[in-house]
Amino acid sequence: MSNRYLPKLLCTASLLGICINGPLRAAEASKPDNSLRQAANTAFSAHTVKSLADAPTSDDTLVEVLAGAVPGWAFGSVTQVINDGRDAAPVSLLYLAQRTAGGWKLGLEGSDSFFSLLESVPDQVLSRAEKATFRSQRAALKQLAGVETGLGLPWPKGASWRLTGGPHGNSGSSRPYDSIDLAGGDGRVLAPRNGRIYKSCIRNGSALVTLVHDNGYSTRYYHMESLTNVADGTMLATGAYLGHIANGLPCGGSSSGAHVHYSLTRNGNAEPFNNKLVGGWQFFEGSSPYQGYALRRNVRVNVGGYLINDGPNPGPGPDPEPMVVIVRAPNGAKVNLYKSPQLSATVLGTAGHGESVKIVCHAYGDAVQGNWGSTKLWNRLTTNAWVSDGHVETGSNNPVVPACP
């Protein structure tokens, strides 16, 4: 690991690539060792290979302990270190780890291992309030993400900033396109929803900042400087100050013009901006990274245009476009159309084999033995009736339309 990526005066055990960020939450911290770094890197590598296409590459990673006040426990982050000048922003994930007889048991945010460790981690490492925030994320994660995110844009409600870069990945063209670039106003970046703050890769007044929200999403911010000095784990209210737009590169990469790189994650995975409602705007990808546009009440804003922030609860967005699908009824008979996605719901009508119907959104309900096995996936029609996904031909066993509100 290159020492130029380590925050000065705030690091210990630098030969092991472990950094303690700021004051510990208790007088004594667990001793970080090389086996913890190896466990974090192994989990991180497996995650990025599985979840990101053409992920940005780096020479190293930075494993940090954000809280380790009880021997044998650590809560922290693992972050890519990107070569300077590369068109990329670092990928970073929180982790929770417990030392066992066989070595460190480690879980990355959103994973079953993380939530399993969460139930036994001491309060001195993660407070009860922090644990409650992560548990609420898990509850929200049981539902697939819909169009609405419940997030605002990271500046004052009612103010306008410029969309300097449309949906793109961490290395520009890497998938998914989970990020947008923004600049404007007085440059003060604000929390788009209540969330707990964690800072990784602190260097030269900059850092990669994460907000863990209570609705299953986390948001991340890169390039900021003049950061808030609140402690990791602090719950910030919507509109709380995070930092100022700049060209900070604490973990490498590149930046042209002061801005903030605003990213979405869900269940520890990068979440596409495409089709998402954020701050009252629905974002869409373009034919290439950094292109695309945002749509709000029939007003379209392309890259370079200005967006008014409606805040985290803008209300329902534009109706999704219906998708025409073909009914596949068992034995060529008819299928029932229900008032809700339950077999006990009122039957509103029927659809015959081979008939075309229009679906607009999906939800999960009662299990149905369909043409391709058992499924709990249902689709809502333009008539507001529901049909089991097992009785329509969509070309996939997964949702093909957005989640219903």
Give keywords.
single chain, 405 residues, Glucose Permease (Domain IIA), SH3 type barrels, 3 domains, nine-stranded antiparallel β-sheet, five-stranded mixed β-sheet, 3 helices, disordered N terminus, metal-binding
Q: Please state the average pLDDT score.
A: 84
| Sheet having the most strands | 9 strands, antiparallel
Please count the beta strands (DSSP E, at least 2 residues each): 28
> What is the percentage of strand-forming residues?
35-45%
Question: Based on helices, strands and strand pairing, what is the structural class?
Answer: mainly beta
Q: Looking at this structure, what is the CATH superfamily of the largest domain? A: Glucose Permease (Domain IIA)
Name the helicity range. Answer: under 10%
Total helix count? 3
Dominant shape:
globular
CATH architecture of the largest domain: Distorted Sandwich
- CA-based gyration radius: 23 Å
Give the N-to-C terminal Cα separation: 46 Å
Which stretches are poorly predicted, pLDDT < 50 over at least 5 residues? 1-31, 314-318
Any idea how many domains?
Answer: 3
| CATH structural fold name of the largest domain | Glucose Permease (Domain IIA)
What's the CATH class label of the largest domain? Mainly Beta
Keywords: Metal-binding, Signal, Zinc
Cofactor: Zn(2+)
Signal peptide: 1-26
GO molecular function: metal ion binding; metalloendopeptidase activity
Describe this entry's structure for a reader.
With 405 residues, the chain is mostly beta strands. It folds into 3 domains: 139 residues, no CATH class; 161 residues, Glucose Permease (Domain IIA), CATH 2.70.70.10; 71 residues, SH3 Domains (SH3 type barrels, Roll), CATH 2.30.30. The strands form 6 sheets. Strands 7, 8, 10, 11, 12, 13, 15, 16 and 21 form a 9-stranded antiparallel β-sheet that branches. Strands 1-2-3-4-5 form a 5-stranded mixed β-sheet, with helices on both faces. Strands 6-17-18-19-20 form a 5-stranded mixed β-sheet, with no helix packed on it. A hairpin with a 2-residue loop joins strand 19 and strand 20. The termini are far apart. The relative contact order is 0.12. The N terminus is likely disordered.
